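[Solved] Which block belongs to which protein?

Original post:
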Amino acid sequence: MFCTLGEIVGSPASRLEKPLGGIPGKKCGTIVLSAEELSNCRDSATMQFCANKLDKKDFFGKSDPFMVFYRSNEDGTFTICHKTEVVKNTLNPVWQPFTIPVRALCNGDYDRTIKVEVYDWDRDGSHDFIGDFTTSYRELARGQSQFNVYEVINTKKKMKKKKYVNSGTCWLLGRRCKSVPSLKKVTLLSFSVESEFTFLDYIKGGTQINFTVAIDFTASNGNPSQSTSLHYMNPYQLNAYAMALKAVGEIIQDYDSDKMFPALGFGAKLPPDGRVSHEFPLNGNIENPYCNGIEGILEAYHQSLRTVQLYGPTNFAPVVNHVARYAAAVQDGSQYFVLLIITDGVISDMAQTKEAIVNGAKLPMSIIIVGVGQAEFDAMVELDGDDIRISSRGKLAERDIVQFVPFRDYMDRTGNHVLSMARLAKDVLAEIPDQFISYMKSRGIKPNPAPPPYTPPGHTHHTQI
């Protein structure tokens, strides 16, 4: 089903019901979408529950319980906002703590009903209902106490059996459930709230984004003087390297106040002695590898193509470690480093690069890899770490800091390069704010307060009350 946000919001009571399609000649059912404007609440709540003496639902073994949390909507319906993990083969589960935005839990309305259902997990998806209870954010915020011990009630069972009491109990953790061992209840074990900061909070507070670019000068790119080369300097249009650099760089440069960017190359023989380098400045100045803006990087890139000899192999570790050295020197949250690697092919130093990334994951840095050309990029997908977190020598990366995209997926068939570059930039930069926030949160770094708005000299603010 396709619709616009306007259709949903503009429907009576902001509730849109439409048929599902996609299979010709078959009725696929309907989908109901309801919209509610989120409050501006930035708090996130972390809580943990345990339960005692839940109903036994499995013929073999006990139960495999999990909880489903629902936020009540303004029209009286409920929306799922969280599911816990399944705790296998127990009637007395202790679930892991979980964190949820307060606006997702109750949209900032502390007295809004929160419904919690408890199920016994089944492999085929036909989970058995154990029972439910209701609470509110205000109640949960009282923390671990007698107020947050809940009887799990199965209404159908209660109607059938006169002697029915409940189907177990849940409570908020704090004292390891010692207070009510004989009751069948769900208990809140712990509850805490903290404010969530956004990427822009840090930028407003003065955190600088330092952008470094590293370009692949290996021979597999082809002779730059020939039109088949990925480095071919066509006087009429940008090559893939220049397009990728411009697309990503023009957005990132806005977050860097001085617009001076280190630009490096790797995999080339350098004049005058022909030594191979995997970490050379594009402008030829080892003491000052900074280029003025994206145009300055492009100019240095074109100059390098005229002076260096494309060679090999394709080593990433030196440029990753280059940026990591700078990031390691500033870990107070005042600066964050983004490395853009543009490459055409198979990586040669995979083990060393993995080690460099695992070490870099502890630092305020992110790595963007754009693959150009038609090569296989399996190794780049592995470095990306979206599916399996990258590791080196048995050590897992503390966080995911790599985003890989193949440039060919973004080439617009109509030849609209502006659209291609916009789509590329959007996907390439999508993970940077989350990676940035994950570093700041892991180090307990809060943003500095934003400076007061600028008031021209002699100009006074008038406030009307």
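(Second protein starts here: sequence line, then its structure tokens.)
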Amino acid sequence: MATEKDRSPDELKLKTEVGLLGGVSLIAGVMVGSGIFMSPQYVLLYIGSPGASLLIWAASGLLAMLASLSYAELGTVIRESGGEYIYILRTSGNIMAFICAFTNNIVLRPTSMIAVALTFAQNTLAPFYDDCLPPNGAVKCLAALGIMVLTVLNCLNVRSSIRVTVLFMAMKVLALVVIVIGGVVLLIQGDTSSSLQNSFDGTKLSIRPMGIAFYQCLWSFDGWNTLNHVTEEIIHPEVNLPRALMIAVPMVTILYLLVNVSYLVVMTTTEMISSSAVAVTWGNKVLGGWGWVMSVAAALSAFGSLNGSFFSGGRVCYVAAREGHMPDILAMAHMHRRTPSPALIFNTIISLIVLIPGDFQAIVNFFSFTAWIFYGMTLSGLLYLKIKKPDLPRKITVPIIIPILVLLAAVFLVLAPIIDDPQIEYLYVILFIMSSSMIYIPFIHFKLFPGLLNKLTVFLQLFLEVAPTAKNL
């Protein structure tokens, strides 16, 4: 492998554009997406009581903070982009890393983006359909348009994408602060619902409802690991990566708890559970004729989160291709703009295919189930590094009990939905994940049909004006 001294100054690399503010905005911008505007009613529905739902939100925030601490250490030990994929590759080997890359690029990332895109489209169209839900066809067309607009933006310029992320992060935080202030004012006035009285009545303590409630809640926190996907594009990652994580995740956790309290202050349990979008229902009750503002805020929040997902998600595909686990064309960047445009275009195509049968509720459950399998594998890798390679240089070290606790939580989240009430869909997910090894053996290990792939790569390289890149290390 070439060292920095061996490399030509003309080598093509991705731009290093993400500073501390950009990092905080990227993490918070992805975390604060569709979840906090959609998921609270589902958490309440599954867990059964307002008090227990608040505990679920607090526990999910704590879990996200502990997990992000673990990832902060990983990001300073393995200073490469790619998130879970690169960490699993460096600790568990090629086959497990390929399974992670394949599942991430074909299932996790597209389904995550589609769920957010659907939320953006639903909330954008909601003000035009006061008496009914927007037509499904119109929702999916607008979701597809949003995805394609962000594809173009992220292919054109990294700095513009980061600026959009910062702008939308500020707007969505402002919207959440409005919700918090509205709840505080009503609480002071004593004009509240009865949701906070006898708040633990009706709590469901069986394993599956708790697991599904966590799935819905953790969907809102997903994105705490976003910055680890773009480590090579962070300015001074050994400093800014841990700082950004420690600013963004606690900030979002506190906001989420206060927003949920505001929801419960304003709405009864029945109103929350029956709501199609809890933030919009809150807006109609508190803001009156200005209730549509919450629908617009939810749409803008989802759009900003989708942009952050595009920025980070394309890098996983790009890094996997660079390591030989995806077609070579996906490891290339535009020769002038220095963006991984082939990987971004690939993600877009897969997402648009997933959009056709897309359903928000099913997407969230199966996304969370699959994601925590790979989070658990990643944390196992951290434990391996801490025990077997304690002398590796690292800028931040967390107590070993932290990754152990998060790993146990990951095991619970994977097993919870299939212990109480096994469903065949979870078996399908596991079989799909394992079946990716059947692709690895012929196409990655034995490299079948190299001639055909080389011709296609050359054609796309010329058409897209892209070239191979070097690591930003």
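Accepted answer:
You had them paired correctly. Confirming on the second one: The CA atoms of residues 275 and 281 lie 7 Å apart.
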